[in-house]
Design a protein that fits this description.
361 residues; single chain; mainly alpha
């Protein structure tokens, strides 16, 4: 909204011309979302505590986590609110890709909000059933795939899968495109949700991964740079950079309160919303497959759960002391802060590996 108000003033003073640049507005979005999270954080935490919106700890989890019972939760609403406001303030609201990523993110956050509310209302660690949650996520994913394909048409990349390392290779998916997008979004949202088990782990890792995709989506929207780096050029996608920047800013502001010992948890409204956000950004940037690399930490966490469940059902034995993987290292004796910081380091390595692929084409 401020973009619409300030950019037209360039005719009165040339200095307002700076608002035409996506990079400048992305910086403003980062700062805006960060300060919204930082300034409103104490108020939100007090309000959540007053409303008795507190975390219920799973009894089967690590014993040391039982002390976290009663910590305010659903703080993810602050994250989502902060980056949504920042995006609406500084982005070009006529851009269809921008509205797509915002609405898909809000939809996934809405699923998480319903799940969190049921947990709080019934004072238990289970909210929506697994079937209900997956059906809602699948419906949003299918709708998102349809919208992205429609916005991109008639470009060659509409409804196609771009293969990393090959600029001119596009694999038309046809009727499989919508299910593909659905799988990407469901996988991303649930992987982030599974990673959200230690103070600061998920939100810090999200900041790293989203910052990386800020680079990818900006490049995809800049035809000259995209051509030079030999990646698919997506006209209009660059404006999504403002959104990803806002997500990074909001995440860093929330981390101030979520670092160990956490004053607030983000809950499913945060983890599902953020997972959906990075998933839809990857789809818009035509870098869906690289999400496995950039978000490698989330993939490993999700795989640890699948391996643990599969092994126990097939062999009656567990591979890890506890899943997701961060709990395994906790039970091996690592301090919570050690696990979080070391996993952040792994997340940075995965992010750098993803960025390195820009030159391997």
């Amino acid at each position: 909204m401020l973009y619409w108000l300030l950019f037209p003033l360039k005719d009165l003073w040339i200095g307002f011309n700076v608002f035409r640049y996506i990079t400048f507005r992305t910086g403003l979005a980062i700062a805006t979302a960060f300060f919204i999270s930082l300034l409103l954080g104490p108020l939100v935490i007090r309000r959540l505590a007053a409303l008795q919106i507190r975390q219920t700890i799973r009894q089967e989890g690590p014993e040391r986590h039982l002390a976290k019972a009663g910590t305010p939760t659903m703080g993810g609403a602050l994250i989502v609110g902060a980056f949504t406001v920042a995006t609406l303030l500084w982005a070009d609201l006529t851009n269809p890709y921008l509205w797509t990523v915002v609405l898909v993110t809000l939809a996934y956050a809405g699923v998480g909000l319903a799940d969190d509310w049921l947990k709080v209302r019934h004072r238990r660690s289970l909210g929506l059933s697994a079937r209900q949650k997956l059906l809602l996520q699948a419906a949003i994913g299918l709708a998102a795939g349809y919208v992205v394909r429609s916005v991109a048409a008639p470009a060659p990349h509409a409804g196609a899968l771009a293969l990393p390392f090959f600029k001119d290779v596009l694999l038309p998916l046809g009727v499989l495109y919508l299910p593909f997008v659905m799988i990407v979004l469901m996988g991303a949202s649930n992987a982030v949700n599974l990673t959200d088990g230690l103070d600061g782990l998920a939100i810090g890792s999200m900041a790293i991964a989203t910052a990386t995709y800020t680079v990818f989506v900006y490049i995809a929207g800049h035809s000259r740079i995209a051509d030079y780096l030999r990646i698919v050029s997506v006209s209009g996608a660059g404006e999504v950079t403002v959104f990803t920047g806002a997500v990074v800013g909001a995440a860093l502001g929330f981390l101030w309160f979520n670092c160990h010992p956490a004053q607030v948890f983000m809950g499913d409204v945060g983890s599902l919303g953020l997972g959906g956000a990075i998933g839809i950004v990857a789809v818009v940037a035509k870098q869906e497959l690289l999400l496995v690399v950039v978000g490698g930490l989330f993939v490993v966490e999700a795989l640890s759960v699948l391996i643990q469940v599969g092994s126990y059902r097939l062999r009656g034995k567990r591979v890890f002391r506890m899943a997701p993987l961060h709990h395994h290292f906790e039970l091996k004796g690592w301090d919570e802060t050690q696990v979080v910081v070391r996993f952040w380091i792994v997340g940075v390595v995965f992010a750098l590996a993803g960025l390195a692929t820009l030159k391997l084409r």
